[in-house]
Amino acid sequence: MAIDISNLTFSYTGSEAQSVLSIPAWHVEEGEHVFLYGPSGSGKSTLLNILAGILKPLSGTVELLGSPFSALSARKRDEFRARHIGVVFQQFNLVPYLSVLDNILLAAHFGSRKTPEGRRSSADVQARAEALLARLSLDKSLLHQRADALSVGQQQRVAIVRALINDPELVIADEPTSALDSDARDQFIDLLLECVGDGKRALIFVSHDRSLASHFSTSVDLQTLNQKAHVHAA
Amino acid sequence: MLLKVALRSLLNRKATAILTVLSIMVSGFVIFGVEHIRQEAKSSFSRTVSGTDLIVGARTGQLNLLLYSVFRIGNATNNISWQSYQDLAARSDVAWTIPLSLGDSHRGYRVLGTSQDYYEHFRFGRQQALELAEGSSEMGVFGAVLGAEVANKLSYEVGDPIVLSHGTGKVSFSNHTDKPFEVIGILQPTGTPVDQTVHVSLDGIEAIHIDWQNGVKMPGPGISAEQVVERDLTPEAITAFMVGLKSKIATFRFQREVNEYRQEPLLAILPGVALSELWQMMGALENILMVISGLVLVASLLGMSTMLLASMRERQRELAVIRAVGAHPSFVFLLIELEALMLTAAGIAGAIAALWLTLISAQDLFSERYGLFIDLDFMSARVLIIIGIMFAATAVLALIPGLSAYRASLNQGLVVKT
């Protein structure tokens, strides 16, 4: 199972009464592509930060890929995120002053295993990045450009490359299409789904735009998932 | 990777980074400069004269006598009569004396009238004697022995004629053209004011002034150089003299004898004591300079800290990205620290380069104006310690933006609220 949440609650103040997130149970299978509908106030950011390991739940457990993620130390969660989770934001996915290649190498740097055989050379990373760029119909000359020299659409596609460079089992996309126009939006989702592939890789695609749900096999409304959603929104 | 990100991040904010580096550079320049010059001044001072027990001149301030007799700075207010000199030099405690007669110059370099005893008894540095690079030191009446720098700067060789000028200005309107001197010897460099001195005999000084009175040449044809040699050239007065005693124990007794000399008001000083008094005067100044340059450093490092802290706001997204790809907050903290240290390193490198260039160009000025010989090599152990302190202070002050970034990236999460 890619994600297994049970009795999750979270509160920024540490008090149960002021919790903003309460999810009794949620499962995502390996290889499953989930559309998570999350309007503002539904606890979307909080859930994503918990799934990424930045925030720790107040109670309950989050298991990712079979490991007790929420029980790990902060440093272990960071390592886990680097190796097993790819993240695509709505915008500003890249460190602006680094080249595209360096952005990708940065992700590879944190995602590389500590064992000698697990560590890949930057040439390997570059070869893999070039292959991914080609699939996303981006020219490999972009690798040596500064990230902020790219158009928003290009940056979003580079973000896919960056998210997939460590071959993660879980990809989290947070409104990755909100900065794109409608034509580019559909194209981007198609490319994302193609690159994420079928295999074992799970995808959580979060958006407040219900019309995108048609691209995905599974669709979940965070407002029904999170029992505290309406409280927070009010 | 950390290094690369830090470097790119700084290059991305070139303008602020360069300004910060410049401010660190200025403070480093001041600190290294003050430190180096005080070291050099100290060693330069202490090496100017050694082995001389007392310096005797007309009654004046201790420092004034030291400055004009040893450093050739300033002028004597009064002279010592030849009789008094002869009388004191003949005392039983005295082993040797070196008469000093100042007041003329050659193209900005001081002329020192003295005797052959100068070459025999004068010592500098660690009891080093003067040595000739070429020629001889038998000055006769119209022979001149040049200090190393005089010969070098003015491209003189043994045999060249030189004309002395009355007074000590760089440009003089009254020259002793009628009685030229001949360069007979050039001394080895000493790193003391000797290098900037033209040495002639007391006879020579007397000879060029024989038809002068009260600093003005008397009208008329005067006495020619050939005629003057025949005359009695015993001077009427000298400016000062250095004394070597037979026994150090007699130093204070002889000093008192001089100070209580009845025929005319004289002053005897111990060069070492006068040097350390001079040094103490400089010391207070130098401590103030050190404090000021320390404060300048703190100000510039605070400026750097402010710059890094102010940039945190615009860098929130970038730090969120770095966190998202798996960086621990400590990576973010180290990134800020490293950026600060790189700025300081660049500032220090700039300060070292600037100081080196300044020393190269100011070396001559210092030696000509102040008789200070500044070595170009300023990387002393103390300077290295100061560099260490600068880096440590940087690391400490960078804790402010570093910890702020650490806490921000710990709590903020991946989604930066816009």
Automatic annotation (TrEMBL), chain A:
**Residue ranges of every copy of the ABC transporter domain listed in the record:** 3-233
Q: Give the keywords, sorted.
A: ATP-binding, Nucleotide-binding, Transport
Q: Which InterPro entries match?
A: AAA+_ATPase, ABC_transporter-like_ATP-bd, ABC_transporter-like_CS, ABC_transpr_LolD-like, MacB-like_ATP-bd, P-loop_NTPase
UniProt GO MF annotations? ATP binding
Q: Which PROSITE patterns match?
A: ABC_TRANSPORTER_1, ABC_TRANSPORTER_2
Name assigned to this protein: ABC transporter ATP-binding protein
